[in-house]
Amino acid sequence: MFSKESIEYLRKAVSEGRVSRGPIDLQILLTTRCNERCIFCPAQAVSERGKKNFAPRWQMPECDLNFGIFDRLCDDLYRLGGLKRVHITGGEPLLYKRIMAVIFLLRSSFPEAELALVTNGILLSEFASALVASGIERISISVNAGTEESFGLQSGVSGFNFEKVKTGIKAVRKERERKAFKKPYLSLTAVLNKHNYQKVEELLRLGIETGADALSFLPLMDFPFAGEEARSFAITESEFESFLRSLDELKPYAEKHKIYLGYTGDREHSGKLRSGDKYKKLRCWSGYSFAMVWPDGSVRPCCNC
Q1: Does residue 6 lie in a domain region?
Q2: Is the pTM of this model over 0.70?
Q3: Mean pLDDT score, 165-178
Q4: To pair with 33 at 20 to 30 A between CA atoms, which of 15, 156, 170, 238?
Q5: How far apart are CA 203 and CA 143, in angstroms?
């Protein structure tokens, strides 16, 4: 993804304790609004007390990123140089009224950068044609479940929306084929938890049915200050091993249908997203390599700051 030149620049910048250009990887949160209430999302999993004491950024009131601020941000990033990848997320970014203006401005300002949209897919069918035409490289659909029942349990909304998600993914795939485009790459993602660790095959069949290019399981964010109910969604070590066996058994079937199947986390942490004492031993490169823009216009070096 990143060139040798970019990596060498980062190494030199970190060793010298300086930054002379912008981040190579940017995440833009366009809105705090969302049309789902996923059980493992920080907005739902962490109590108001926990947010106040440990993560006040999650107490942000409902708001959208001001488009004027976004426009100036693009100017600043262009002058700084170095941007290689942008993830557009939220909340649910397709609720943002000027979402296509955001994508087209990023595409025109940074033609060499990889653009990715992270969405729950409920509104995807409404934007299928425009998204394919925009030239965006990747759309990641946070589906988490392979059936309507499981979808309802995890998303916190009616399972009826599951059909909307399926329709949206198929619409993008159909439009991509109609235009004979190779992009956008369609990736289904599932946060690994108690409700889906035994449902790998269900999710894989969903990916095949909708024409997705990949199905990736993501580690669950493990909040030490979250309530007992939220932490109960995490799987045990033995359950994680069972999940890995299912993954390995189904990979030949996935390859046969030309869909990538994998787990993106560190297997050492048994399905949870943790840094442990890693940054006591290694220097953190956030700020040098990565930054986040929040809906209130603030810029942070990472999601833990």
Answers
A1: no
A2: yes
A3: 98
A4: 170
A5: 9
